[in-house]
Every structure is written in C-alpha cells, then in structure tokens.
C-alpha cells in the first residue's frame, strides 16, 4: 500500500517536471509572457472604463453567478492514470482509495486557483452591482464549497452507470447555492442549501457509488483530456511528441468543400481545409473564440473595441499554428511532386483567410456594441492589420525558418 501512495507522488512529480520543461521553452522561445503582461495592463484599463460606463441596473451579480456556476460544476479529477492501469491496477482497485483521494485534493487546489483569479477579476463588477466586502467573502466561501462538493460528486459519478440526472442535480444545486450567496439571501437559507447538498452527496452519490465499480475507461479518458489541454497549448510554441490527434468525419460540413482542383498550388490548400474541418478541435476552437469575441465586442467601450478585435484575432492565430505541423498533410509531403514552397504559401494564405473572416464578423458586433456604424471600418482595419501581419509576416517567417532547418 505504501507503493501505491508513492506511485501517485511520483506521477504527480513527473507531470510537474514535464510541464516545467515546456514552460521554460515557452518562456524562452516566444513573446507570450510579454503579450500576457501587456494584456493585463491594457485590459485593466479598459475594464475600469467599461465599469464606469455600466448602468446601475446592469445584472453584474447574475453574470458572475452564471460564470462561476459553470466553472464550479465543471470539475474533472486529475488522476494521472494511464491506459495500462485498467489492466495492472485493476486488481488493486480496492486499495486505491488513498490514491484517488490525493487526486481529488490536488484537483480541488488547482481548480480553486482558477476560481480565485476569476473572483479577483469579478470583485469590482460585484461591488459595482451593490455588493459589500462582507457579502463578497460569503460568495467566495460558497464558490469554494460548491467546487469541493462538485469534485467529490463528480468522482462518485465514475462509479455510477446513469449519471445524467445526477449531473443535472449538480447544476441545479450549485446555481441555487451561488444565487443565494450573490443575491444576499439570509444566511440560514444558504446553510439549508448546503445541508441539502451534503445529504444529496451522502444518500444519492455515495450510496450509489458504493454498489458500483469504477469506470476505468471514463477515468482514463478524463485524464487524457486534461493532459491534452496543456500539451495542445505547449504545441503552439514547440514540438510536442506526446500530442495525440483525433479525427472526426463531419461529412456534411466537409462536403461543402469538395476537391475542385488537382493543380500543384491547390493540393495543400485543400489538405489544410480538410484538416481544419476534421482533425482535433481546430474548427471548434475557431468557432468558440469567434463567439466569445463577438459577445465581448458588444460591451459598450466605444472605439477601444478595436484593441479587443485585434487581440481575439491574434489569439485565434496562435491556436491555428499547430495546423502547420499536423501529421496528416505532413505525412503526404513525399507523395506529391510539389515544392514545399506551395505548402508554405497555402498555409499562410489559409490562416489569413480564416483570420480575415473572423475580423469581419467581430467588426460587425463591435460596431453594434459601439452603436456606431461608422466605426465598422476602424474595427475591420484593426482586425485585418493583425491578420496580415500575423499570417504574412510572423507565420511566414516562422515556417520558413523551420523549413531551412
């Protein structure tokens, strides 16, 4: 049993060392830290300016409640398990309670760090909505309590076969608890909600989990998803050999872009289009960032939204960089009698088109948010300028350097 305890510590240490190596590479080989530092400074300025222009009836507390409910309910447990564990650790499942308890504590601490940052950013908005320091402390305690409860209940769901009703219950009780805290219900009501959550945990989640078996497939899949989040981020700046790629057919969407030409200049262009649609989550990432950016552009900050448009376009471009190293088009390089310059040009052009389309969409919402149709050209110019510089200057120089090496 001592070996099982040391196993968790060793895997946690190995994961920390691996991430530390990639962070060192990211810090040395990219301007990410400078960009984040600039974003914090400029974002703080515009955040204050946005708060000053908010009407008194703006539902800031409701907005924060919805965001924190989402982050509290989403509570994956980092177990550091591997595919082979469902064979070699399965006979020891009855003795793994301590191993998985450490995983839950670790997950709680790491996810609370993210929640703390969100709470820190959301504090001025809450105070603008009429909150007080005392009520904000109650909100913080409720958020951390909801996170601990969700992590425990989500782990118990790994032993239960039908979890949809239980997941919906977690959503409902978490939103109810945070709503009571945000809208300053009597403390006795908050305590009663906490009591209901504890009873649900004991008599619904733990009771059903005690008679079930651990779903090793679900646990390992959950661990791989979390590991891939960081590896995909690191892959934006350096090669990550451990990165796994997934492919989805998406026949309906892929059918909208059939192969139309067999010219040398069109080969890689069509491969990049198909890869963008079918592989990993490039398309999902592009849609999510566009939607989030569009909603953010609706905030009434006037012509300063041009900076927001440029920032969203830049972040999207960073997320598209791994497409260049994707193994699907790269594996076919030797099969086509096509110069590598065509591949480079096709990739740069494809990224520029994607960023330009995103700039156009963001500019529409930015003009609506600024209530100034005349501001549309300014927002579009900002987005297109970032698209042009990022694709035809930064990406072109980067892929040319890799090709020369």
Can you summarize the main beta sheet?
none
Secondary structural class: mainly alpha
Count of helical stretches:
16
Order of helices and strands: HHHHHHHHHHHHHHHH
Using only C-alpha atoms, the radius of gyration works out to 24 Å
Shape: globular
Helix content, binned percent? over 70%
Distance between the termini: 50 Å
Return the average pLDDT rounded to an integer. Answer: 85
Query: pLDDT under 50 segments (min length 5)?
Result: none
Number of separate strands: 0
Protein name: ABC transporter permease
Transmembrane segments: 25-47, 53-73, 105-127, 133-150, 187-205, 346-368, 374-395
InterPro entries: EcsB_ABC (IPR010288)
Organism: Sporolactobacillus sp. Y61
Give a quick precis of the structure.
By secondary structure, the protein is mainly α.
Q: Your description of this structure?
A:
This protein is globular. Helices cover 74% and strands 0% of the residues. 26% of the residues are buried. The chain contains 16 helices and no strands. The chain is mainly alpha-helical. The chain has helices at 2-29, 32-52, 60-73, 85-88, 97-128, 133-156, 164-182, 187-210, 216-234, 251-254, 264-278, 282-297, 305-320, 327-331, 340-370, 376-404. Keywords: Membrane, Transmembrane, Transmembrane helix. This is ABC transporter permease. The chain crosses the membrane at residues 25-47, 53-73, 105-127, 133-150, 187-205, 346-368, 374-395. It comes from Sporolactobacillus sp. Y61. InterPro entries: EcsB_ABC.
